[in-house]
User: Fold this.
Amino acid sequence: METSLVIYSIIASLIGVFIAMLASAIPGLHIYNVIALTMLLAFAAADIFAALHPIVLTGFMLGMVVGFSMLFTVSSQYFQPNDESFRSIMLPHERFLLEGRAHEAVMLGALGSLIAIFIITLFFPLIPSFFATVRLLVQPHGYWLVGMVMFFILMTEWPKDHGVGKTGWQKFWDGWVQLLMGYFTFIVAGILGMFVFYRTIVPVENAFQSLMPLFVGLFAVPSQIMTFMTKVKVPKQHICESVESAPHDVMRGTASGFLAGLFAALVPGMTPGPALLCTGHLTVTSGERQFLIGGGVGRVLYYVGALMLFFMPGVFMRRGGAAINISLFFVPETPEQFFLISGIIALTGAVSFLLIGWFSKACAYLVEKIDYNWFSALGCVILIILTIQITHWQGFVLLSVATALGLVPNMWHSRRLNLLAVLMVPVSLNMSGAGPAVARFFGFY
Amino acid sequence: MSNQDNFEIDTQVAAEEAVDLNIPEKCPSCGRENTERRKRCAYCCTLTPPRERITLRAMNLSTIVLFIAALVYFVIAVTLSPQYTPVSGLGESMNFQHVRILAKVRYISEFKDKYQKRSTIQLELEDSKSGGGDDYEGRIKLKAEGEVARELKEKGLMPARGDVVDVSATLFAGKGYRTLSLGTAELLKVVDKASEAAVVETDVKSLIEKPESFKNKKVKIKEAVIKAKRGKLVLEVSGPDDAAGTLVIFGVDPSGYKEGQKISASGLFVYYERGGYWELKITEDESDSIVVLN
Assistant:
């Protein structure tokens, strides 16, 4: 491979990290939304992008994915607090923020991300045949694996609280509402997913982004709305120089995150959230630190590890939005490209990690000076504009429906994990071959 | 011993332990006061002794390993010698595999689909080290279709006949067929350009008398006379003095020529094993290969 091509790819990947950092400042914005916008720009300015070698553009995309997968939780950590009324669904992130330890939470997640980058760049290249074999083994069993995960999610939604109320009916309702709303969310999200998979209303020229309004509506916009409703004063944040992390915390967090990341990377329809729920039980993970480290490992392995499998000789597995978008203009084929990609991941991973500390300090400063609601408002507006720009008014309709559904878990304190049925149900049904029959039953096909 | 005494002893032990463990006066996690130097912060419950914690500086330093790994990978990417598969080794067992070959371009053709929209460029390649001739095992067709074909032409990446090319492509091989499919235009690179100087000017006599010295070379016969026309693709020519015998020129439609006509011809000089004779091979796209002299 020409040295100039390697240098251009490195520069492009570092620009990608920089753009990812800017995008990460907006809570709720997902990297795939930014990539979708980049693809639209690439189509609009085809002449300019055609002048770039595909691998240079790939380096740029890779920089964005690596940078974003490591940085995007930082702004959410600082700018999306929840108050006491949402304690039951609060993740450790919010607790750390309210205790003035957001920087520590960020750095624990970053530690997990760093471990994942080490695994991906130093360990993955040694075992391509392992991934090729696992891929062959998993491929015919994907549908029931996802099915079992869905079953597990539904099982673990079982009432965790006793009912409170004056009358027997009130106690009954209070005890069961969380479960019912969880199941309601799961079923409706599944039907919505089937609708989008079989009869999306997104215009055909932008159909490659038909899931975007769903994810923005189900997850990002409700989070911003809940932040608006939250009345909490964020305390002054302490910038720590070290984090508490016993070896067993690191080991257990890494084990759960590693398994979850691999599971999500290898099985279609799987994302790190449900995968972590399963592997957390498997590895008997407990405590906030293990959760944060595991989340960091799983997240990066899913976004970056899955993308690396796309370039791995003998595997060439196309999983995740980034790989799908890159495959529109680049087909990886040679070992030199794989080594270049591995180098870019190592470099951008290291640079992104070094940026996390600075980025977190900047966010800690900003959350003291500026009301976090402004960030939520900005994020919400950008997300809606992006969705309309990419998927037109039809996408906005989908986004509105998804937002209404996305608010249900927040209002009734059930888990947001159920919303992922939007992806798991159609993917599992389609892999099993039952998808068309179910879609026909609902009149979508 | 009274309870008060016990308490004093415990406090003293705790104070000594605090010094040993180097516990700071402020919680390193939340920053609140820890004047009693407790092992766990009274506010956020985190462990305060430095040995229970990982410093951010240590984490930052560990990225050096990643920078070194990145450098190593970049060096490998630049210096890695490509592993070429010989064309004769591309078999059924490698179906759907991405392969990389180093080959010489024998022929180039282009055709469009029945709607005249989607074009396909087809290259016949042979092992760069192959002796050419009729070594069919050492040849394979490479197809660049649609967008890839367009890019090959627009980006000026099209090779010429005789060029040695480095190709990374997907192999489709089954019983009785094998083809390579090019995924992106950039994966076809010319590594050795065939120069015009490679064409050897000679005459019919030299070709007939010393065929081995012209084997698989592109030759140009300055002057020859058409002696006979055979079938749809063969011309038989001799030298102007008609002394050394006749030579077969294959690949030309004889209907456009007359017996006795003087021509100049250029093409690939190969040994046709099945027929057991030497011939000058010309392809359809070489329209200027035969020039009528009278």
In short: Chain A has one domain: 3-441. Residues 99 and 235 of chain A are 7 Å apart (CA to CA). Strands of chain A lie at 242-244.
